[in-house]
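Input/output pair, single chain:
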Amino acid sequence: MVPLPPGARKAAIPEGITGDEARALQRKLAPLVRQEPFDVAAVRRVAGADISFDKAPAGQTETAVCAGFVTLRLPELTLLEWAGVRTIARFPYIPGLLSFREVPPLLEAWAQLEERPDALIADGQGLAHPRRFGLACHLGLLLDLPTVGVAKSLLVGTHGPVPEEVGGWAPIEHRGEVVGAALRTRSGVSPVFVSVGHRMDLPGAIALVLRCLGRVRVPETTRYAHQYVNYLRRDPDFPLHTSSWRRHPGK
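Output:
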C-alpha cells in the first residue's frame, strides 16, 4: 500500500473544525502550494480521483460516500490499478470548503493503492478558488504529489474566448491574477477549467490534461474514476465503514 505522509490525515480535517476555521486554514496553507516547472513527458503513471455521495437525509451532516483512485499508464491510457473505499464524510457541504468534506475519504482510498502515481488529476479546483486552495491544492499538498485540478464549471474569475481547436485555451483571471485556464478538450464542446494543484505550473497542467484526453470532454483519469466510484456506490455487496476494494490488473 502507498503510505500517507506523516500527519496527513490529521491535517486534512482537524477534529471539530468550523467553517470559519476551515477558511482560515485554507489561507494559512495556500502559500505552501508550489508552482514549478513539471516534466510532463516523464510521467508514466497518472491517477484520477473522484468521490460519489449517497443521498443524505435533510439536515444530516454525515454522509456515506465511495471514494476512489484509478491509475492509468501513459501514453497508452491503459488501466494499471484502482482502489476505493466506502466510508463516511463528516464535514458538512459548504461551498468553497469541499476539500474538507472530500479529502479525508480520498486519503482512505489512497492508502489502498499499491503503487504511487507520478501525478494526479483531481476532479475539482486548484488555484482557481477564492482563497487559492481548492481540492487539488489540498490533496496535492497532503500527498506531496504533482497535482492538477480539472473542473467542469468555473468557480472564480473570468476568461476570454477559447479557440475551437482541441488544445486551445484562454487564461482565467481573478483579482488581477491568472489562476487557471479554460481549455478546449473537444471541438464544439464547452471547455474544462484547469488550474494548478501542487508541484506544477500552468503550462505543465495543461500539457498533462491534453496527454490524458480520450473520447469525452474530461480526461480519461476523471472518466474512469467517476465510473469506478459510482460502480462501488451502487454495489449492494460493498458495505459501509471499513470496506476497501482494490485491484492491480494482471495480479
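The two ends are 15 Å apart (CA to CA). The beta strands are 45-53, 63-73, 78-89, 119-122, 147-151, 169-174, 177-183, 192-198, 243-247.
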